[in-house]
Amino acid sequence: MQPRVLVPRPMRRSPLNWRRAMPNDDAEQPSAIRRGRGLRLSTEGAADAQAEPSEAAPEQPARRGRGLRLSTEGAADAQAEAEAEAEAPPAFALQRESIKTAYGSMSYLTGGTGTMPLVMLHGWGASARIWTDVAAALAERRKLVLLDLPGSGGTPARVTIPTLTALANEVLDAIDALGLERFELLGHGLGAATAALVAGQLHRRVSRVALLGMGIRSFAPDLLAMGLARLPFDISVGMARPLLNFWQPFNRAFMQSPPMERSMSSALLHDKPVAQQLWQDYLSDLAHADARVYMTWLTMPGEPALHTALSDISVPTLCIAGREDLVVRLAEAKDAYMRVPGSELLVLDKCGHMLMVEQPEALHAALRDFFK
């Protein structure tokens, strides 16, 4: 039985638009959904009423007043509102914590008021804070764990080569250290591939998986050869790490410079970023990321372990891709989706690789619906 596909159809303004069809069904239909015009406030009526006296009301003779009436109702209401604001729960915030694993320390962000844990894995070049807005959208539904993968954010790079299997083993060890018996997974890019390996191995402990911006290539001998021949690159980067650490402040400023930002935008984004702060955070984290992990991300689509893991996933799975993604082509995203039995595919229009930066509202709505 073929898995169901969620294929978008054009809408006037909303990027989140889908219908259910078979994988080869490319027919599109216009949508009847329109965005509202919002609430319009106006003071014209009050101004007119003040400027033009009513003709219907006859002039009344002057009467003596009943005196001055004092009331404390307004003050009581103001005091009650102030007390309610003081007792209101604080705005959503993530807490930075760290755990010890067999591979070393791992930093992560945590928050949320739900009972079911949701482990979130970022892509290459990013850190856990790329999920900040997504976490706020899901905070009332899940207990959130946003891991910094090795060589990113607050988690130091390891001495060993950060292969895809090695990253999955680290995440497995962190999940056990956190005492999570049953949980859900959300990943983007390299983090999605890592989540797929974890879900394939711990299918009895994982309840559902969302894979964003991830694809595979069924025939990729060039990527497989590159992965097998990466040892000299990993050794060189490992030896140069002290120099790279010294250069990080300058590299961070360079990554956020207008020319470099435009270059990264053309490669990763379809249009200007909507979540501007997330985009700036990503550029800053990219300057700090372990360069060896870039090779893992580059060769990931041809990784045989990933292909096998996708076929082993036996829980509800949602794959989300950007139609204009230049990093993970839509055909590659469909290949990954087709590997997962019973999965669904959502394609966001006018969106490149950084879904949480370009189409945050559409992404949040899709994830809220999936993680009910």
Automatic annotation (TrEMBL):
Identify the residues that the record assigns to the AB hydrolase-1 domain, covering every copy: 117-359
**Gene Ontology MF terms:** catalytic activity
Superkingdom is Bacteria
Q: Which Gene3D superfamilies match?
A: alpha/beta hydrolase
Species, as recorded:
Candidatus Viridilinea mediisalina
Coiled-coil annotation reads: none
Please report the name of this protein according to its UniProt entry. AB hydrolase-1 domain-containing protein
Positions with biased composition (Low complexity): 46-60
Q: Which residues cross the membrane?
A: none
What ranges does the record give for the region Disordered, renumbered to this chain? 1-90
